[in-house]
Amino acid sequence: EAGVAQSPRYKIIEKRQSVAFWCNPISGHATLYWYQQILGQGPKLLIQFQNNGVVDDSQLPKDRFSAERLKGVDSTLKIQPAKLEDSAVYLCASSLRLAGYNEQFFGPGTRLTVL
Amino acid sequence: DQQVKQNSPSLSVQEGRISILNCDYTNSMFDYFLWYKKYPAEGPTFLISISSIKDKNEDGRFTVFLNKSAKHLSLHIVPSQPGDSAVYFCAASATTGNQFYFGTGTSLTVIP
Questions:
Q1: What 8-state DSSP symbol labels residue A100?
Q2: A38-53 exposure pattern, b = at least 16 Cβ within 10 A, e = fewer
Q3: How far is it, in rounded angstroms, from Cα A21 to Cα A25?
Q4: Helix (H, G, I), strand (E, B), or coil: what is residue B83?
């Protein structure tokens, strides 16, 4: 079974530039999550999709971050414009269904450095 | 508001001994708990879970204990191996809710 795929693995940009990350979840997983993990901290949920609908985006900085999951499969997360404090690892995860008695499977992450 | 806390940022253990990683939570609605293991440059991988109807779950060398009254869970690794060296995150969720809440992680080093 293929795991969660993410690209790119690394990205370096200057502040005020834009960047996009891509995620392909495990086949058949209805729920997809984007997390931000700042160095020394645990992953923080940014947005959660159930199929192609948003379940929770309460912690997404909507003035600069956007995400979509077209057709309920792949997802993209965009930052525009980027700030220095956006430097982090962005993790995508998927699960069969909403949180509950099922675990999330994580991709390798995209390490973003904003200069 | 950190609902899941791992108060030990790091832990060093000799190979063959027991590693005990601790996690505390504040939300009494949490009823499902997981431990993830993370190597550098990789995403977290699921290790073991426990639901609130149990107080212990075992999988090979890994055992998770849950003390609901104390809102505390721990992960025991016996015997510890050098390959266990990684960052361990605990996470919690409520079946009535939608998301998992993660602790800040404990970096385990197993010394050969």
A1: S
A2: eeeebbebbbbbbeee
A3: 13
A4: helix
Q: For residue B105, which of B80, B75, B63 has the smallest C-alpha distance?
A: B75
Nearest Cα residue to A8 out of A81, A72, A90, A88: A90
Token representation of residue A52:
């192609």
- Which two three-digit tokens encode residue B112? 């050969």
Q: Shortest CB distance from A99 goes to which of B41, B93, B102? A: B93
Asked whether the beta carbons of residue B104 and residue A56 sit closer than 8 angstroms, the reply is: no
Q: Which residues contact A61 (CB under 8 A, 6 or more apart)?
A: none
> Of A106, A107, A95, A104, whose CA–CA distance to A5 is shortest?
A107
CA distance B15 to chain A (A): 25
| Per-residue pLDDT reduced to its tens digit, B23-51 | 999 999 999 999 999 998 889 999 999 99
pLDDT tens-digit readout, A91-101: 999 988 765 56
Chain B: residue nearest A38 by CA? B104
Structure confidence by residue, pLDDT tens digits, A54-74 = 988 999 999 999 999 988 899
Q: pLDDT tens for residues B67-101?
A: 999 999 999 999 999 999 999 999 998 877 668 89
